[in-house]
Design a protein that fits this description.
It is a single chain. By secondary structure, this protein is mainly alpha-helical. The protein has a domain of 85 residues. The chain contains four helices and no strands. The radius of gyration is 33 Å and the shape is rod-shaped. InterPro entries: MOM1. One of its GO terms (molecular function) is DNA helicase activity. Its EC number is 3.6.4.12.
């Protein structure tokens, strides 16, 4: 009986010794996977930020073009009034009306620009938050898979896996295979 117990103890020690490198290897793989996911997420975020900066630049360029067009129209209308109305009092009255209209157009232009800029900034913030949420979701998915492996089974990629990870349906639709370049 003693030799049987000794054999059992030896087998147990060997199995423990055999598992230690396996866990070290798994730990390295997990760390590598986490770094890979983080790197891809950082790359996606950098690309998103660059795209958003281009959107902002395009926004300002477009609004500047509209401003130039308004000023050009005002100068044209002013020149036309000066050409048509030779009597000074009439010309001055018409030019004042044009100037008032131009001021109102500028105010409206600025007001619309502010509204559109706020909308653009809100949209961009939502995009950044969604990207952060995807990154957290992928990391949570990896963590869930790791916990499943160490508890004895692998999580399936079916609905129970998605429920464990807690990813939103929108994130699943856009990225159910993990992080990819945008």
């Amino acid at each position: 009986e003693r030799s049987h117990n000794q054999e059992f103890a030896d087998e147990h020690v060997l199995s423990q010794w055999g598992q230690a490198p396996k866990y070290k290897m798994a730990e390295k793989e997990i760390s590598k996977s986490i770094k890979k996911i983080k790197k891809k997420c950082e790359k996606r975020m950098t690309k998103l930020i660059r795209k958003q900066q281009e959107e902002i630049q395009e926004f300002y360029r477009t609004w500047e073009e509209k401003m130039v067009q308004l000023e050009k129209e005002h100068r044209f209308e002013s020149a036309l009034v000066c050409k048509i109305h030779s009597l000074m009092p009439m010309r001055i009255d018409k030019l004042k009306i044009l100037d008032n209209d131009f001021s109102k157009k500028l105010e409206e232009h600025e007001h619309q620009k502010d509204i559109c800029l706020k909308d653009l900034e809100a949209k961009q913030l939502a995009e950044k938050n969604e990207e952060r949420q995807k990154a957290a979701c992928w990391l949570a998915g990896l963590k869930s898979m790791v916990q499943g492996e160490f508890s004895g089974g692998l999580p399936s990629h079916g609905s129970e896996y998605k429920d464990k990870v807690g990813c939103s349906q929108a994130s699943e639709n856009t990225s159910h295979n993990g992080p990819q370049n945008v």
